[in-house]
C-alpha cells in the first residue's frame, strides 16, 4: 500500500468520522443533557488525545505558564461553548440540516480574518460569503430565506448558528496559539480544559443519574464521539496535513456536511428535500469560492 494512498484513506476516514458525529450527537441528545453528553465526550477524548501526543511527539503535552491563558480560551470556545450549543441544537434540529448550517463556518472565518487580521478580502470572497450565507438561510428556512424575517429562528437554529460563532472564535484564536503551542498539543489541552469547565455543570444536571439510565446506543455514541470523532479524526487529519499540506487536506472538510446528510438519510431516515440540496450546494460552493487560491 503506497504512502499517498494511506494518507488519503485516512483523510476520507476523518471526513466520515466527522460526518458521523452529527448522527451520534443527535442520538445522544435524545437521552442526555448537553452538559453530560459534552463532558463524557471530552473526558474520554482528553485521555485519547494525550496518548496521541505521546505517540507523535514522544512526550505528553507540555504547557508553560504563559501558554495557559490562550489554551483556556480555546477550551472555553471550541469545547465548552461549542458543545453545549451542539448538543442543545441537535435535540431539535436534524443532523444533516445542522451540519449544512455549520458548513458556513469557513466563510465566516474568512470574513473575520479580513476584519481582525487585515487579510486580503477580494470580490470573490465577498461573493462566496453572500452565496454561502444565502445557502444557510435556504437550509434554515427550508427553501424560503425571506420567511426568516417573518417567522424568526427557532432555539435550535440559534444554537447551531452559535456553534458557527464559537468555532470561528476557536479557529481564529488557534492561529495565534499554534505559534507557541504545537497544533496537536493545543487540541489536547483545549479538550482537557474544556472538559474541566463542563464537569461542574454535568454533575449539577444529573450526570450520574443520566449515565445510570444510558442504553447501549448512548454509550456507543459517546465512545464514537470521543475516540473516532475527536481523537482519531483529529490525529489522522494532522497526519495528512504533515504529509500533503494544509491546503490539500483542508479541501476534504467541505465533504463533512455531505457525509452527515447522507448518514442522516441512511441511519436516521432524515429526508433530503430540494431546499436542503440546493441550500447545501450553495453553502459548500460559497465556502469553496471564499477559500480558493
Overview of the molecule:
The protein has 293 residues and is mostly helical. The chain has 14 helices and no strands.
Give the CA-CA distance, first to last residue: 31 Å
Question: Treating each run of at least 4 consecutive H or I residues as one helix, how many helices?
Answer: 14
Sheet with most strands: none
Q: In terms of per-residue confidence, which ranges show pLDDT below 50 for 5 or more consecutive residues? A: none
Shape: globular
Succession of helices and strands: HHHHHHHHHHHHHH
CA radius of gyration: 19 Å
Which helices and strands, and how do they pair?
Blueprint: H1 3-28, H2 34-57, H3 68-90, H4 95-102, H5 105-116, H6 123-140, H7 147-151, H8 155-177, H9 183-204, H10 207-212, H11 216-244, H12 246-251, H13 256-267, H14 274-291
Main features:
293 residues; mainly alpha; 79% helix; 0% strand; 14 helices
In short:
It contains 14 helices and no strands. With 293 residues, the protein is an all-alpha fold.
